Amino acid sequence: MSGRRVVLAEVADTRELGRALGALLAPGDLVVLTGGLGAGKTTLTQGLGEGLGIRGPVTSPTFVIARVHPSLVDGPPLVHVDAYRLDGSLELDFLDLDADVSSSVTVVEWGHGLAEDLSEDRLEVVLDVDTASEVRTATVSGIGGRWAGDEAAAALASLGGEPC
Fold first, then answer.
1. Domain parsing of the chain, residue ranges
2. Can you give the pTM of this predicted structure?
3. How far apart are CA 64 and CA 68, in angstroms?
4. CA atoms of 97 and 6, how far apart (whole Å)
5. Which tens digit of pLDDT belongs to each residue from 82-128?
């Protein structure tokens, strides 16, 4: 497992990290986002969508559970899932995301403990916010063979921050 910890002093930094991640992602990639309310999960996904060149706008899919955003640049679509209201991985299975995972980039907000079975290879992004300063920190960890090699480590290093 390789990873980076990036300080996000402003909301624009969160969106920019998403853009940088979007440039690294390919069809079949899974991104699991973890963080409290207001930590920046949807903002990061908005930037990720910009990096992928998808049709937007990207908004929180809390009530619809999942949205598919097609590509505008002949790239993979973005499947954006909000697992906050799901009771467990069984409900995630009912969304039938398995059919989309291989040809899409799938982002699951609140996905920790629910979405890991969708793919052996994934990026896990944990967003923390210091409530006093409102400075956020993103810890991006690559898990599985896709993120194990030198090329993937170099790609994650391009995000800046420090290794973790």
1. 2-136+143-163
2. 0.86
3. 11
4. 29
5. 875 555 444 444 455 544 667 889 999 877 877 777 788 999 999 99
Using alpha carbons, select from 57, 41, 64, 44 the residue that is nearest to residue 110: 41
Q: What are phi and psi of 98, to 5 degrees?
A: -55, -35
* Segment 56-62 mean pLDDT: 72
Of 3.10.150.10, 3.40.50.300, 3.60.150.10, 3.30.360.10, the CATH number of 2-136+143-163 is 3.40.50.300
Going from the C-alpha of 124 to that of each of 32, 40, 72, 156, the distances in angstroms are 5, 14, 26, 12
Rounded to 5 degrees, what are φ and ψ at 57? -80, 155
Note the pLDDT of residue 150.
86
